[in-house]
Specification:
flat; 4 helices; about 100 residues; about 0% strand; mainly alpha
Length: about 100
């Protein structure tokens, strides 16, 4: 029975973390229309998508959205580099 208690506690913690990330994503997405120039809100949304394992969606957001606003945005470029490195496209990434 003790093993199930630990499993349940772990599942509850994962669920709590997921709920927090979903709330962060919701806040970033719903605030974006009021602040369309805010790269920080878009960066938060992309970061949450990466954290949730939605890498391709995050890359689309980064590449097609706010890198057009700021091609040299350091954190956005780091996220892309990490994505390329993790997806086996190391020639498109760089050491950060």
């Amino acid at each position: 029975m003790l093993g199930k208690t630990k499993e349940a506690a772990n599942a509850q913690e994962v669920s709590h973390q997921t709920q927090q990330r979903c709330q962060r994503l919701f806040n970033a997405v719903t605030s974006s229309p009021a602040k369309p120039e805010s790269i920080e809100l878009r960066m938060e949304a992309a970061t949450v998508l990466f954290e949730q394992g939605m890498d391709k969606d995050a890359v689309c957001l980064v590449a097609n959205d706010f890198l057009l606003m700021d091609l040299h945005h350091r954190e956005a470029n780091r996220l892309l580099a990490r994505y390329y490195h993790n997806s086996g496209q190391k020639e498109l990434s760089w050491n950060t």
